[in-house]
Each structure stands twice: as structure tokens, then as C-alpha cells.
Amino acid sequence: MPFQPHQHTNQRELFASRPQWVEDDARRGIIATVVLPEGVEKPLDYLVPESLAAEVEPGRRVRVPLGRGNRERLAYCVAVRSDELPQTPLKNVVAVEDPAPLLSQRMLELTKWMAERWMARWGEVLEAVLPAGVRSSRRLRSTPLLSATGAAPARKLTPAQEKVLLAAAVPATAATLAESSGASRAVVGRLVKLGLLAEEGSVEIQAMRPQRAAIRHDRPDELSPAQRAALEAIVAPMQARRHETIVLFGVTGSGKTEVYLQAVEETVAMGRQAIVLVPEISLTPQTCDRFRARFGTVAVLHSHLTPAERHAQWREIAAGRVNVIVGARSAVFAPAPRLGLIVIDEEHETSFKQATAPRYHARDVAEWVARADGVPLVLGSATPALETFARCLAGEWTMCRLPDRVGGSQLPAVITVDLRDPQARAKGVISPRMAAGIDWALAGGGQVMLLLNRRGFATHVQCRSCGHTARCPQCDLALTLHQPGNRGICHGCGLVTRLPADCPDCRAPDLVQRGTGTQRLEEFVRSRFRGVRVARMDTDTMRSRGSYEETLDAFRARDIDILVGTQMIAKGLDFPGVMLVGVVHADAALHLADFRAAERTCQLVTQVAGRSGRGPLGGRVVVQTSTPDHPAIRAAAAHDYEAFVRSELPIREALLYPPFGSVVRIVVRSENEEAASEWTSHLADRIRREAGDANGTRILGPAPCPIARLRDRFRWHLQVHGPDGPALRDLVRRATATVQTPDSIAWIIDVDPVDML
């Protein structure tokens, strides 16, 4: 018989008379641990009311009250437990936002690890891994399935379900449908699973973007011995269902892509999914073309998709209806339920590092995911990052070399032009040797690619009389001249202003244009090579949707003879008609205040040189440089990247730079330069005190950043170096844990940065 308490006049007597099991039960409850996207760093606990107990689960978003005003905030539920309630009463979860979990348990574990690895807030990591289209409040509507099946299913529906479907005649969010129908969110979620509710626009999304013409990519009859060995090295752990990282170190044109394709074939044959990452959106169309030619349907994830398109792709991947996922950095988070392989092409590219918080590196994330799922990770490059090379030399990763081009083609001859010679500069931006090479290629029916990693018409405008240079009023940068319109554009903040005809300082009509950008190079090429079809690829010309695809398709179809561009033309593109590649200014980034400057220069020149000579007509490369004896330039000209690695690694080791040490960079910003300087010094002092006599730890700075002012904010930074990455991060975390940041200061932590400017 159930317990029924007697009537008592005293409340204390009432509770004293209750059995122990009732008292214990009253002290227990269902507790949800949630993480807020912003504002609060630590996870918070909330009590789950009985009415929501069936809906609150890890991976869903919930609405919770926060602060004294109990303002409702959206938060991610990361854990649910039945536990003893604390002495201080918990606030209640108010509502559940999502009809189904957005994040799996594995993704929750990954995001927590990412927050620790890159010293970010867990909430901002959760926001980063979910595309905006997935996170947005989705509008649901009744589906054609309901009307097509008539009243038969309707008779099987509960009254609550019928009310929800009636309300869904007008598209609305799940929360609105639940509220207007008086049903719980669980009812809405059940109808979604039954297919009677679907997201608004989901049927039309598939046809939103026109399909491009299919690009033929034939499967070779056989692989080269080096390709075959590389494929076997990938398939072996795949069959054994174990993790291993395999690095394909192959010269440009050595057939790395074919190895990827056949490895993905093996993955799909096993009933599993593959994720393929590429560094640039410009490479995505060509990569997708190759994979579609081999596999048919391919999911695509990159930032140029609309939120609706990205969400549609995300849904198809999560449902397991697509086996191959191709995309840029964030595609590593694709919710593949049957993951069997991850491939990162051009793994050395710095675009795999997120520039804003959370500042993760996709290569490290991919390794975590591959290890957690017990699948191979394949990293491919003609110029692997020194961090990658070092891990192979240490025996942690397996390196497979592809030293020769497939099909018998040879690496192109490289001609170095010394720009210190006045004769080399006599004809303008293009030296006589490069001009002769262009004439040779065009006369032979070939195409030309010209690399200049500078946008705009002129790099700066200067007064010949007094030396005044037009500068951005908000940044410590010269304005870059863009035409038409004589516009000065700041490449730091994007400010656009019309440049004056006369010097604003001395009023002399003596302004001259200095330096050359891609726009000026394009103009020069058009005037020097009359009647030749020229196109330019840089961020100024590739702004419109589909512009990458259109330009590359035109180049492939031989509708363009000379392609001028920045680094986006340097990697991954395979055009057999290219007979000459010209590097107009190889030193553009060589002398930046960045310890990776030489590595990036060698990689860029090597990569762009590899675009030449892939067809039967052969090819040449002309490299214009003012430092032809620099190890980076010499190695690139000789197609000998390992020579550069051998010269650079000892320097890195002596200075404890990656891959032999870890770096944490702190950047402080303020409208007041003195405040920025003082706060950076304050942080440096705290870290020094915390470090004490820690072996190998050193602090560089504080000092002004190489770009000392950006968007009207003064920038100071410091670097903390140490031999042990986790210990270094823990040191910085302890030193900054209790910092109270003034309102006038903003500062960020960048773990293992790739941008030091």
C-alpha cells in the first residue's frame, strides 16, 4: 500500500515522519550540464523538469535562465545525469530547442578536446563545428508524404500529433509548433522521424545550384609501382580497421590524386564513407569533378554554399546517403556515421588553420577523428609541412614517396632570373627571359600561368618630391592602388578611398605608383602580348558566386591563353596545356617577420612550378628573384624540397621553433597604444612568474606586432616558447586564469600560430 502521511500541524514533524526512501528521492533529480556559446566559460548545471525529461539529452540545444534577471539563453546540453541535488537550488531548463541531437557523443568529446588543445571556450568550439544552416532555428512544414498517403496514417496518429500537423500547414519552428499546438517537443521530433514533418525548402534545395558539365577523368589501366605501394599502405590499416597516418610525399604530377581516388574506392566498397579536404575553394570544383566522375554523387562543404545548401548536404551525410564528402577546412566535422578514411590534399597549406576563434588546425582535428574512429588518415603534398616531415622522420607517421611524374612526363626546367641585374628589369615587370618564355609557349600552342602574390594595381602610391606615402588612417598599412577609379584600398581593414591627384603633404603634382599587383600585371600582359586572351584570378575578380568554376572551366577549354593570379593558382590545378609558368616576384613573402617565411616561399614556388609541363608538349618555369642564392629559392628551382628541409630543420631545432617546440602567441588590441603595451607587459610578467625556472621556456616580447595598427586598434604581442606543447599551454592557462581584463583591452591566444603578423 502506498505511503500516506498523517496530518501534522508542524512542518518539521511532517518531514521527520517521512520514510528515508522518500527523503532520498527528494534529494535526487535529473541534472543537465550545459555550455553557453558565449559569455560564460565554464559549464553550468540545470535541473531538468519532469515534463522535459524525455527530451533533454546530450547534443541538443536547450533554453536556460541566466543571471539575476533570468534572461533566457540558448545553450548546448553536453551531459545528463541522475544525481543528488546540491544544497543551492538549481534553476530549471526552460525548453528544448532541437527535435533531435545536433551533435553526437563523439563530436562532444572532440569539441571538448579542441577547446583544451587550442585554449578556446567550449561553447565557441561547439558553434564553430556546426554550420549556421544547421544551428539556425529550422522551420518545419507538413510533407507531401501526408497528403499522398491520405487519411490512413492520420487515423493512426495521436491527437497531439494531429494538432501539430494542423499547425504545420504554415511553416514554423519546432518550438512554435509545440507551443501553438499545446504538444511537447518530443511529439514534434517524432513526426520529423516519421517523415510527416520536414524542414521548409528541403525538397527544393537539391536543385538550387545548376550542375556543371561533367569533366572526364579516366581511371588509368595500372598504377605506377610507387602509387601501388602507397595505395597498399593505406588499404592495409583500412582492412584491419586501425588508425594510421600515411604521408604521400610526391612531386607535382606524381599521381597522388589517383591514389586518393582508389583509396576512396576501397573505402566505399567496404560500405564506409570518406572525407577529402582541400585547402582552397578554388580547388573544390576540380576535385569534385574528379570524384563525381568516379563515384557519382558527392557531398560538398565549403563557405560559398548558402546556409540552406550546407544544411542539405549535412543532412544527406548524416543520413549515410552519400559516401564521399569533399570540402575545405570545416568539412572535417562532417557527421559521417560510417567513416572509413580521411584525406587531406596539399596538407601543408596554412588555410587549414582557422584564423578566428577557435583557432584549430584541421590536420590535428583530422588525426583525432581518425584515431577515435580507427581509420587511416592520408596527408598528401609535394611540399609537406616541416611538422609533418619531422613526425615521419621520428617514425610516428608513415611516409610514402612518389618521386616521379606519371605517364613519363618530366619535371620542367627552371630558369632563375636575377632581378638585381638591371637588364632583367629593363622591360618592366616581366623580364626579357620571361617574355621570351611566354612567346615560346604561345607559339607552341600552349598556355601560360603567371603568379604574383600581390593584389591590386600598385602596392603603394608615393610622392616623388617629399616621399609621402598614402596610408590607411585606421591601419599601419599603405593603401594599395586599385583601378578603375584610382581607388586606394586597405588590405587590412577593407577601407576604400579615392586617391588625390596631388600630394596631401607638399601639394606637389608628383605622385607615382610603386610596386606591381596582379591588376597591373594583367594590364601589362594585355599590352605586351596583343590579341592574347588573358584572365585574372585573385580575391578581387573571384567575388561572384561560381566565378572560380567559370574561370577554371574556360582555362581548361583553352578559351584563356594566359592566366594571371595570386597563390590561388599555385596548387592542385592540373592543366596539360600549360607550357610555361612564370613566378613574377618569388621574394614577395620571403622577408616577412615570420619564422615560416622561407618554408612558405619554397612551397609556393615549388607548387606553382609544378603546374607546368604536365602534357605532351613539355614545359618550362621562369622564376624572377632578387635572392637567387637563398636556400628556399635554390631548392624550389632544383625541384628538391628535401634539400630545403635539411637546411631548415637544424635552424628550427636550435631556436625551439615547431616542429621541435610549441609556440603560444598572445595578441593584445586597444584604441590606446600605451594601454595595449602595458597590458601585454602585464601578461608577460604573469607568465614569467608562473614559469619560474621552467626548463626550456622562454618569452619573446612584448613588442608591437609587425602590423602595429589594424582597424583603429594598436596591436602588441608576445610569444611563449617551450619544448612541450601541453605543458606550455598549461603554463599560459594557469598564468591567465584569474586575469580581469579592462574594458579598453581585447586579447586573444593563438596556439601554434601560422600567421605571425
Description:
By secondary structure, the protein is α/β, with parallel strands linked by helices. It folds into 5 domains: 11-101, GIY-YIG endonuclease; 142-199; 225-407, P-loop containing nucleotide triphosphate hydrolases (Rossmann fold, 3-Layer(aba) Sandwich); 410-454 and 516-651, Rossmann fold (3-Layer(aba) Sandwich), CATH 3.40.50; 662-751, 2-Layer Sandwich (Alpha-Beta Plaits). 34% of the residues lie in helices and 22% in strands. The protein has 25 helices and 30 strands. A 7-stranded parallel β-sheet has the order 11-12-10-13-14-9-15, sandwiched between helices. Strands 16-26-25-17-24-23 form a 6-stranded parallel β-sheet, sandwiched between helices. The protein has a 5-stranded antiparallel β-sheet with strand order 2-1-4-3-5. Helix 21 packs antiparallel against helix 23 and helix 22 runs antiparallel to helix 23 (641-655). The longest helix is centred in the last third of the chain and has 19 residues, at 673-691. The chain is globular. The N and C termini lie far apart (76 Å). The relative contact order is 0.08.
Strand order of the largest sheet: 11-12-10-13-14-9-15
Number of domains: 5
Please give the alpha-carbon distance between the first and last residues: 76 Å
The level 1 CATH classification of the largest domain is: Alpha Beta
Number of strands: 30
